[in-house]
Amino acid sequence: MSVLFGRWNVDGQAVTQEYDETVAKLLTPYGPDGAAAYAQGPILIRYHAFHTTKSSPSEDQPHTLPSGVLLTWDGRLDNREELTRRLGSAPAVGRSDISIVAETYEKYGLACLPDLIGDWALSVWNPFDRSLLLARDFVGTRPLFYSRRAKCVAWSSVLEPLLTISNDPLRLDEEYLAGWLSSYPATHVTPYVGIYSVPPSSYVLLHEKTTLIKEYWRLNPAKKIRHTGDEEYEEHFRSVLTESVRRRLRSAGPILAELSGGMDSSSIVGVADRLLAAKASNTHRLHTVLRRCRDHLG
Question: Per the omega criterion (within 30 degrees of 0), is the bond before 62 cis?
């Protein structure tokens, strides 16, 4: 997982070089494959890479659009071929995910978010209307956090820099704790007061004085799949499961799969093994990590 980070001093004060160097040291262990930064007055945007696919070393991040808007992206784009066909642009083979995402955003803007299929986190800085867009995939697999103070906005795909560099005292968020103890915390909170998570299926749009949080996608319960018999449902399920596993085998190196021995993980590993045997994936090796379960006596 690569790391994206940014800071926007809404009061106009320039981000110092000392601050930039501190952030770089914190992020390097998360993204050991190189780093790049955009620093312009009150704006600092950093990207630290962790390459996982053959095309990821060619990524140009932070990515500047022809319009001057800057994007940073951490994720896996699954419908690359579909998007490039719709755009009428160069084929997806050999292209980085960020180049396809950037072209899609340049053409469709916010309307493209539901069409970005995969696991991802995205930030978009618009220097013209001075706005920041933060968005996550529909499940929220890739994390993205942000904080808004009186004089600055900061965002990061890992919590550490938001916690370490903040001048404000850290306080535990009671809403998060109550949610954790009762079932699950709300998707927009973190364990710390003043640090928030971008909710799944949503974007956060920040201007100098306003913050808008909005869903861009919601499950449609009226949309149903109808087949004539059990065999067709079973075949449909196998097809969807196989495609889902194949998309997650898009790696330039070996992949680890946690294998507990249960039905879910065993099915996933079995499908992955079949795809590797048929040479129907980009990766060539799958390692399993066994999870042992112990009975705890009361």
Answer: yes
- What is the DSSP secondary structure assignment for residue 88, as one 8-state letter? T
User: 244: Cβ–Cβ under 8 A, 6 or more apart, which residues?
Assistant: none
User: Has this prediction a pTM greater than 0.85?
Assistant: yes
Find out whether 6 and 46 touch, Cβ atoms under 8 Å: yes
Q: Which domains does the chain have, with CATH numbers?
A: 3-215 (3.60.20.10), 230-290 (no CATH)
pLDDT grade for 296, boundaries at 50, 70 and 90: very low
Residues contacting residue 290 through CB under 8 Å, at least 6 positions apart = 259, 260, 261
Q: CA 231 to CA 235: how far, in whole Å?
A: 6
Of 165, 135, 142, the C-alpha closest to 50 is 142
Element (H, E) at 83: helix 80-87
- Name 197's bridge partners: 145
Which residues lie across from 122 on neighbouring strands? 73, 135
**Model confidence over 79-99: pLDDT tens digits?**
999 999 999 988 888 889 999
- Between CA 83 and CA 76 the distance in angstroms is 14
How far is Cα 28 from Cα 26, in angstroms, rounded to an integer?
6
For the segment 234-253, what is each residue's pLDDT rounded down to a tens digit? Answer: 999 999 999 999 988 888 88
Pairing of strands 286-290, 255-259: parallel
Strand order of the sheet with strand 63-64? 63-64, 70-77, 118-126, 131-136, 202-206, 211-215
Is residue 219 helix, strand or coil?
coil
Pair 199, 144: CB distance under 8 Å:
no
Q: Give CA 282 to chain center in angstroms.
A: 21
Rounded CA gap, 33 and 49, in Å? 5
> How far is Cα of residue 178 from the mean position of the Cα atoms in its chain?
26
User: By the 8 A CB rule, do 152 and 11 touch?
Assistant: yes
Q: What is the mean predicted confidence (pLDDT) over 97-113?
A: 95
